[in-house]
Write a structure and sequence with these properties.
- This protein is mostly helical.
- It folds into 2 domains: about 90 residues, no CATH class; about 70 residues, no CATH class.
- It has 8 helices and 2 strands; from the N terminus they run αααααββααα.
- It has a two-stranded antiparallel sheet with strand order 1-2.
- β1 and β2 form a beta hairpin.
Length: about 180
């Protein structure tokens, strides 16, 4: 985080920052008004990858984006994808952001990084594409395997529909080329 702050001050002329503490930001913390410094910066400089702010700074940028409003996550996902292709972004961070964007768009996730809960029920794994291959995809990114009981307890199409959530193309959805880290 400190490296991102130094970059913002030196390269972008930003002299006033919010104190975000040392914890991982949560969605209420990352209100659009509190991301006001990040949006123009990413829109101007592109993804804050390791080439600009080193690895820990790039990861800090991802943490902010991962908890940013959905429309910003979706807008910045291609920038992170390009940074990964250029070697200045983390494939693991990309997997988490891709899964988050897929979940918000009511699509199945590829890496099983996202869980979803309702006020009336438990937090369960958001549905995954090709559940039999999810642990192979996770292993390529050094993510721990998902246990079979967690996979078996994942949200189903019917259970989500009971909460008014309808997954896009449930029966035919396939991973689109270029939407996830290469393996």
């Amino acid at each position: 985080m400190h490296r991102v702050g130094r970059f913002l001050a030196a390269e972008c002329g930003i002299g006033q920052f919010l104190d975000i503490g040392t914890g991982i930001p949560t969605s209420p913390w990352c209100r659009p008004s509190r991301l006001a410094f990040l949006e123009p910066l990413i829109n101007t400089k592109g993804w804050l990858g390791s080439d600009l702010v080193r690895e820990d700074g790039a990861h800090a940028c991802w943490l902010l984006v991962q908890h940013a409003p959905d429309h910003l996550q979706e807008r910045w996902l291609p920038l992170l994808r390009a940074a990964v292709a250029a070697g200045s972004g983390s494939e693991r961070d990309l997997a988490y952001l891709q899964d988050r964007v897929d979940m918000h768009n009511h699509r199945r996730q590829q890496y099983g990084t996202q869980h979803f809960g309702t006020h009336a029920g438990p937090i369960r794994l958001w549905p995954v594409t090709d559940a039999t291959g999810v642990n192979t995809r996770r292993a390529r990114l050094d993510l721990p395997p998902i246990t079979q009981d967690v996979l078996d307890g994942a949200w189903t199409r019917e259970a989500l529909a009971e909460h008014g959530i309808h997954l896009d193309d449930w029966e035919t959805q396939q991973s689109s080329p270029g939407t996830a880290p290469a393996g």
